[in-house]
Amino acid sequence: MKRLQGKDLLLVGLTLFSMFFGAGNLIFPPFLGAQAGVHTWLAMLGMAVSAVGLPVLGVVAVARSGGLDELGNRVHPLFSKVFTVACYLAIGPCLAIPRTASTSFEMAVPPFVGGEAPLGLFQLCYTLVFFGLALMLALRPEKLTDRLGKILCPVLIALIVVAFVGCLIHPMGGYGEPQTARLAESPVISGFLDGYQTMDAIAALVFGITIAIAIRARGVSDEREIVSGTVRAGWIAGALLLIIYAMLAHMGALSGSRFPGATNGAGVLTDLVFELFGPVGLMLIAAIFVIACFNVCVGLITSCGEYFYKLWPRLPYKGWAAIFAGVSLVIANAGLDQILKISVPVLNAIYPVAIVLMALSCFHKWIADRPGVYSVGVLFTTVVSVLLAAADYLPGLKEILFYLPLAREGLGWLLPTAVGILAGLALPKKKGEAC
To answer: Which of helix, strand or coil describes residue 362?
Structure first.
């Protein structure tokens, strides 16, 4: 019985890292550093929990439960279907896949063509090539480890290290003061909430299918070994994410003190590398964004295609992959700002539910005979998180919900979740064998 280990384990871990590390992972850590200044590492502590710890926990939870469907079934079969489809659509064609093309385009084309260029036409041409190449790789999911883990991921890490070393060799001063009251007063909570925007906790729930295919392609066939290999690959990916985030946050904090006008992480990194390397720096940062976003795009098209083929097998996997690539192409041309504007409320609604599911899975051994813990706890979380996400558009609702503890900090779902879990524990145990 073959076990995933050594070089094969490292390659699968690198593949998983490359599938995680895309647009949001490049944008949000440096921007957090630029905004947090001297509170960068406190803010990064919060981001490490939501953007590293939760993704690793998600990989472990899905692997040990037998898939996202099975994890959702612990709540209710209907919930499982609705939540799983919502996760795949959010992390796929509705938000994350289009964001990979939009973000990489913003970094790879406008800085080099001038303000008078027809950017709309250029973006259309770019996204056609981008999604065409991504679809070509996604059509062979068993080859992802060779193409992402062996080639593109090491190149990406090397480029980021080059930019980081440039900051060490040519330091540009110290960290500045926090640029927002939120980061000055609650840097840990702010970092935790900003970590939502990477989408990695949700991505962890949907990447299980693809990673299992990659492990089987290395000759591992025993299901227990596939689960074990997935978990260990998750730890490798998590360690790499933490290291790269720390580098990017440090770079952002230095850039923020020197160039305080940047409005997003892409601008933060652009200002920094241009200061360090001149025009060559723009090419460096463009290459980093294109490779990172391309890797994630391939992984997401693959995962979404595999899931929907499993759900509706009348259309072959290649057909589903082509649909998701095509829909993402159309949405990507709406522009990065629109995509980011939509993503915030959607993620604020979905993320707490994903967090609670993953957290409860850690205690499944002790609550397996109490299904009410899952159903009532997740019900309370879902209702409150959806209402909180909608509150920004309904001022009257916001005033009511802000009576909840921690609601102003974005964690108003915590107390209702705790109440729901306690209520679930009070319900009768499940008769017969524990699930």
So the answer is: coil
